[in-house]
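Supplementary material to the annual report.
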Amino acid sequence: MVLPVLLVLYLAVAEGVVALLPKTRQAAVRPWVWVGPAVVLVLLFLVVPGLNTLYLSFMNADSTRFVAGANYAHAVTDPDFLMAIRNSLVWLVALPVLAVALGLAMAVLTDRVPYGAVARSMLFLPVAISAVAGGVIWGFMYDYRPPGAAQTGTLNALVTSFGADPQSWLVSSFTNNGALIVATVWMTAGFCMVILGAALRGIPDELLEAARVDGANEMHIFARITLPLVAPTITVVATTMVIVALKVFDIVYVMTNGNFGTEVVATIMFKELFSARDYGQASAIAVMLMAMIVPIMAWNLRSFRREEAIR
Amino acid sequence: MRAATPLAALNPVKRGAALRFTNRIPLHLTIAVILIAWATPTVGLLVSSFRPASEVATNGWWTAFTPPLTFTIENYAQVVTRRGLGASMMNSLLITVPATILTVGVAAYAAYAFAWMKFHGRDWLFLGIIALLVVPLQITLVPVLRMLNGLGLTGTFVGIWLVHLGYGLPFAIFLLRSFFAGLPREMLDAAAIDGASPFMTFFRIILPTSVPALASLAIFEFVFNWNDLLSALVFLGGSRDVAPMTVAVSNLVASRGEGWQLLTAAAFLSMIVPLVVFFAMQRQFTRGIVAGSVKG
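Predicted assembly:
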């Protein structure tokens, strides 16, 4: 209750001070009263720490000595880090492809049935669940008991009912990264579906009707009309998924803690930070993660400016 | 109950609909398969959380519905009292609600200025906000941790509020600014002609007309902050007194040796609040997500 009062009080006091200024100065000062708190907080929590991390990445573990590129050199020769990079690349490709493809399929299919709204809210539900709870949910799905014992994990019960041996999905290096990605697809496909669904509903019905009248079949309409029209939205959604993939942390932390060859960039960094207490190394990893995201940032900025120019 | 009507007896329109239904069986089947695949993990969790330990350890959750039915709320009683999940639920609320209020408030002020005031450097400043939308918070962890350590704010609710506020602002400002900028100019001009100050305009006109956008943002931030694990792990330290649900559940997972009946109960408990919010305000939640991502 105190916080809303404080928020209003700040503005009332600051506007009161502005009102005391000569009329000519008010217009120049007032905007900063409104954007000031946000700008200060963003500088304090994002911009300055980001630059500071860049600086720290050239320093030793406790930031007392300059070590030039040693942290970076160490990272790129460290087998764990290289494995994390490899895994992050797998995430980077697999997550957007699977989540967008499934999300698009969900949006297109549920759009054609009368119970679509109910179906969509069921498919969207996992988006509201934390990755921690999702990790428990899928840890249980992947649960492994030795052959012969009653399988309590849903997936192994399914596999053994077909006569195959139960798999230790999260331990086997053949399946564990895939298993983690599938769990993440389960949590994100609904997000893709909702956004792509909004784009699909934006396509004018007359366009589709005209094509049908001209004798085009549904497959043709989808490939030639629907897909090109939602392509920009697909790009946006896929980009969001790329960022999710690069930043992925919670689900790996909860389900495998990076063991058995499932380390990703964010979990490696967390370990450098809290287990090894090597701030230099952790910072260098963070900078490399940031570097991977810079192209997306630049693309975001470019398309925003283009859009503002149209407006 | 109505008797089944032979197809030929139906009028042409109804016959068409019935034929379409049979033609569309593959469509319905595909949707059914996806729905079952999507619901199964959550149903398995929910069912297991109500089963006794001995059952959960020896047979699958799907056998729970064959007699003898043995359901129990013992697992919930145990995680709430002995595993401290009740306290964590309170912590999650004490972290999430204030953080959300602060984010929406501070972002609304800034978004109003970005949308309706002219000032030097405005466009560059806003481009900076856009750039920050995708910054991974990993890049800030070490310095922010040191800053909060220096201020004695690590392990405190105030510290984590500020962290959520700082990290949440770019998205919140972006979302609200695009909504505010879409409000009709005449409405704001009329207010200015009537002599309303920006303060009055903001509280009397902007906020009341933007309730849908503010609600979407608030719900989005609430769920996002509730589900956060990384900032809580880093900035709240290992202390159990302030640990939110996500940290408590992940500690329970990490401690191994805990049976699935407790993990599933704990996980479901941590999901209840976001799920209630989700079902109660699904439209706003969805709208927030769509508005936020249809950018650039």
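Chain B has 15 helices and no strands.
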